[in-house]
Amino acid sequence: MINSLCRKTVLLTQIVICVILLLAGSGCSANHKDEVVVILKTKSYHTDECPRVNMANAQVLTIAEAKALDCKPCPGCKPGTR
């Protein structure tokens, strides 16, 4: 009985650790260092913390993709400099 309980506890601990590692590796914050938030209407790209992206119709792209669309970096949040 005790061995069975110990095995179940170890298994549960391993599952929890795997889930934590998967969530940490998946970038739950959606902020990979080469990704920016692009506002196509203004042809500008921003960090995800920039207040200018609030309520904007925006999408997440890489900096290279944003530049290919002829978008310019936001002078306020300066994406790609950190």
Q: Mind explaining what this structure looks like?
A:
By secondary structure, the protein is of the alpha+beta class. The chain has two domains: 1-29; 35-73, no CATH class. Helix content is 37%, strand content 18%. The chain has two helices and four strands. The chain has helices spanning 2-25, 63-68, and strands at 35-39, 44-46, 58-62, 72-73. Strands 3-1-2-4 form a four-stranded mixed sheet. A hairpin with a 4-residue loop joins strand 1 (35-39) and strand 2 (44-46). The radius of gyration is 20 Å and the shape is rod-shaped. The protein starts with a helix and ends in a 9-residue tail after the last strand. Mean pLDDT is 78; it is low at 25-30.
List keywords for this structure.
82 residues; rod-shaped; single chain; alpha+beta; 2 domains
The structural domain count equals 2
Binned strand content: 15-25%
The helix count comes to 2
Could you give the order of the helices and strands?
A: HEEEHE
- Shape estimate: rod-shaped
Q: In which range does the helix fraction lie?
A: 25-40%
Overall pLDDT confidence: 78
Strand order of the largest sheet: 3-1-2-4
Terminal Cα span: 54 Å
What is Rg? 20 Å
The biggest beta sheet reads: 4 strands, mixed
Secondary structure category: alpha+beta
Low-confidence runs of at least 5 consecutive residues: 25-30
For the secondary structure, the number of strands is 4
Describe the SSE topology.
Elements: H1 2-25, E1 35-39, E2 44-46, E3 58-62, H2 63-68, E4 72-73
Parallel strand pairs: 2-4
Antiparallel strand pairs: 1-2, 1-3
